[in-house]
Amino acid sequence: MIPMKKIALLAVVPLFALMAFNTRAVPLGASGTATFTVTAFAQEYSGVTASVRTNHTTTTTNVTTITKSKATNAPIDSKFVLRLLANSFKTNFPTGAKLIMSGVGAYSFFVVDSSGSNILLDASSVLSIVDNVSVNSGISTFIATTTRTATKYSGNNTQAFTEYVTLTYDDATLTTTDGTHTNFQLSGILADMYSENVRTAKTTESVTLHGAGTGTIQGKTNIILKGTITATLSGILEV
Question: Structural domain boundaries of the chain?
Answer without folding.
Answer: 4-25+35-43+67-91+125-236
